[in-house]
Each structure stands twice: as C-alpha cells, then as structure tokens.
Amino acid sequence: MSFKLRTVLTVVFATLSLLVIVTIGSIFSKKSFVSVETEIGHSLEGTAAQAADKLDRFMYARSGEMNLLGDMSSLKDKFNAVDIQILLDQMQNSFPTFSWIGYMDPKGNVLAATDGVLLGKNLSERPVFQEGIKGKFIGDVHNAVLLAKLLPNPSGEPLQFVDISFPLKDSQGKTRGVLAAHLSWAWAKEVEESVLAPLEREEKDLEFFIVSKKDNTVLLGPKEWIGKSLVLQGISQARYDKSTWSSEKWPDGKEYVTGLAYSQGYRDYPGLGWTIIIRQVKSTAYAAVIDLMWFNIWTGLAATLLFVLFGWLISRWISAPLGRLTRVANRLGAGERIEIPDNQGIKEIEDLSRSLRNMVSSIMDKDTELVVMQNLAHVDQLTGLKNRTALELYLEDSLEMESEEHTLTFLYLDLDGFKSVNDTLGHQSGDVLLQKVAQRLTALSHEQGITVRLGGDEFLIVLPSVGDHPREEATQYAQDIIQSLNKPFIIDYERVHIGCSVGGAEYPTNSTNPSEIIRMADEALYLSKRAGKNRVTFYSELDQER
Fold this sequence. Notes:
By secondary structure, the protein is an alpha+beta fold. The protein contains 15 helices and 18 strands. It has helices spanning 5-73, 81-94, 127-132, 145-150, 186-200, 233-241, 282-285, 287-333, 349-378, 388-399, 418-425, 427-443, 470-486, 514-530, 539-545; strands spanning 98-104, 110-113, 137-138, 142-143, 160-169, 175-184, 206-211, 218-220, 243-249, 255-262, 275-281, 406-416, 450-455, 458-466, 489-491, 494-496, 499-507, 536-538. Strands 1, 2, 3, 4, 5 and 6 form a 6-stranded antiparallel beta sheet that branches. A 5-stranded antiparallel beta sheet has the order 8-7-11-10-9, sandwiched between helices. A hairpin with a 2-residue loop joins β15 and β16. α1 runs antiparallel to α5 (186-200). This is Diguanylate cyclase.
C-alpha cells in the first residue's frame, strides 16, 4: 500500500508537530504542578510555623502574667484572701482571656476567685490543684464541666480551657496555697483568623487545625473534626523536623497539600506539643495550573493545524522535482547516458527509492560483499583484533624488507589470572574481559606493527624497528602493556584484576624462521611466568639461564 509524497509529508508534519507540542506541554504541566505544589506547601508550612510561634508566645505571656500575680500575692508573706481577690479581679479585667482565676489553700479550698465562681469549693481532686501543688503546671486543652455551667456562654458551644497553676510559697519556702487559672480556648480561634487572613486574599479552601500530642486529638478545626483522632504521616514528620509540608490523602479520602509545624515552646514555656496544620484541597491548589494546561492544549491544536497547512505547501513544492528525478533515474536504469538534472523533482518517494536502489545496488553489491568477506577473513570475531591469517599476510610483506638494520620483535602475551575470572564470573564475562583487553592493546598499538589474537587469552604483537636499540624499545612497549593491563577492569559491576606475562624473541637475531621465533617467544613467556609473572623476558635471557 503506497501513498503520495504530498499526503505522507502532510501527515508527518501534523504528527511531529502534535507530538512535540504534547511532549513539551506535558513536561511543562508536570513541572508546573510540582513547582506550584512545592510553593504552596512551603507557604502553608511557613504559615503553620507562624501560628505555632504565636500560640507559644501567647501561652508564654499568660504564664508570665500568672507568675507576676503570684509574686504580688506573696508580697511580704501576706496571703490575705481579700487582697488576693482584688488582684484576681484586676487581672481578669486586664486580660479577658482568663476565664477564671482562683486562689486555693494547701487543702484545695477556694479562698478567692474571679466573679466568686467556685468560691468555697474544694478542688483538691482536680488536676489543676493536684499538679499545681507539686510545681508549675500547664495543662492541655480540655472541657471543664463544672466551670462551664457557672460561666456565661452566649454562643452555646462547649467551653474549653487551658489550665495554668503553681504553688504559692512564703519566704521560708513553705507552700501557702495554689494559684490557678483557666484560659479560654477562644483565643486560639483569634490566632487562626489572624494567620489565615493574609493567605485567604489569594488562596481558597484553607482549613486550620491544632492537634494535641496525646492521641493526636483535634483541639481546633472544622466542627466535624473536633475531638477526633487525626492520623497523618506528616504529623510524625513535623514532630521530628519541627516543620514540614506534605501532599497526602486524608482520612476523608481527599488529597490535600498540607503545611505542618510543631509547637516547641518559647523561652521558659516548654510548649504542649501541639501540631499546627493548615491544609488546602489539591484541586483548588492546582486550579491555576489546570487553566494553563487547557490553554496549552487549545494553543497546541491551533499550532498543529498551522503545521498541517505548512506541510501541505512544502509537499507540493518538493513533489514536482521528485517526479522529474524518477523519470531520469528510470532512463539511467535502462542504460541511457544521461545526467541527473539539479533541482528536478520526482513523482513519488517510493518510485525514487526503487529506481535509485536498483541502479546503485547493481554497482555496489559486489564490492561491498568483497570488502565484508575480506574483513571477516582477517579479523578475530570476538575481539576485533587481527587473526592468524592477517598475521601471515603481514609477515609476508614485512620479511621482504630484509636488511641488517631491519628488526622484527615478536612479543608473546598471556593473561595472568584469566582462568580465575572464567571460573568465578563465567565464560561470558571472560569474553567481555578479552574484548576490554583488546581495546587496551589497540590503544597502545604500534603504527606499523600488528596485534594478533592467537586464541584463548594468548596474543602476539610484532613490532618493526629500524634503529640501534630495538630491544629497549620493545621492552618499554611490553612494560606499558603490563602496566595498562594491571589496571582494574569493571565487568558486570565487578572489579576484576589480572596480570600479563610477556615473552619476546627477535628476527633475525634469534632466527630467520617466523614459526621458530614465535615458539622462542612462547618459551620466553613461560620463563616470565616461572619468575613470578607480570613481567617481560626475552629468549636471549633464556639462553643465558641455560
């Protein structure tokens, strides 16, 4: 099934343009989602940390006010209930967040209290007294059923309080009573509003939570969450990192971008371990990015239509000269001597491919096959080095240059430790090692010499030399090879070490028979192995030893 070039080019232009636009749009959208999520997450985290700091500073201030009230009550060791009552009323008038302040004797009897609430009652069984008689106590948010019935409550919502209490002692250190206060939890709502107000000008659907350290109970938040336990991975992380943000699914099944901060206290106020959480629904957080994504989609479709039109015009411009080239190619294939005109088109790309292929392949096939077969005959298939056939041709050419100054040095190489690699890592890894060895030998190869793989892990290098010191040159070359092969190889992520022993013989010094010289170099190789491996030995040294 064939198509007109005009049709193919038009479809290709449309497909490529659509692919590029979709790819770029996807990458851009994904990057935008990550960027927006990170930005919002850090913003919510910072706001949560700001709220935590405000809460801690507020509690620190109220704790300091209570300390001041206690110092005033203990002034000159006068613990007069009437004087203390006056101080309590002044404190409540100055700081309305104190819903109730009371003074109890060491047995828990309330001797003075704001608005007379609980006056004469015994609170010895209450935590505010039991903990306060021991030392300074700041309790977590709780419901005070008895106190809530006695205090005004216009809203009708359950009243919650934070307790502060500590012992009052005279100058002799004797406990003379307990000063206690209930802070209205309503001030936390004011902190929430002050923190969220700047954000809500730009962001929507923000929700604020305060979670206690004990059982992760929600102390402040949407009504449906109050008093429930909230389990989030980010809460544990916030208690470890002090502040963090996350994007996770909440128990209600929705995903939120969540900023969290851990209350750490302020100065001598140790904090109650509250976790402040500010969350925003993911879909709301991503609204701007989604709008941008749709804009990119419509823009991409418009650009695709433009590219289709452009591709159709280009295809018309190309197809005319291609048609003319097809007719010329057919005439060439018929044996006519005719030149291919410049800038002359062809009707269809399929016809052009077939005509040119028939014309060129008839000329090039035989030459290509000959080159491939020749290369295969002279090359070792595993390592890509020359083989024995190539070595024979090389020696035929080199031995024709016989002269007193012309020397051929034969270096016979054998890898030390190769069998261990085969046994431990397998033959496939051994083959890879041979290929890497061949690469290093090729990197060191002499311009006019030849490097041959004889078989297994044995190699032969022939070095031509015209000079006064062929032995020194060959020795240095062999040392370079040993040094190179001593460097570690990485095979299948394993660090592999091998060595290399080298034996050398010289033409025509040792013999004029190439086969004999190779045998002599092999004998010298085994002398290197017996002498400790990883070295080079020449056949003349073997004669000296004998």
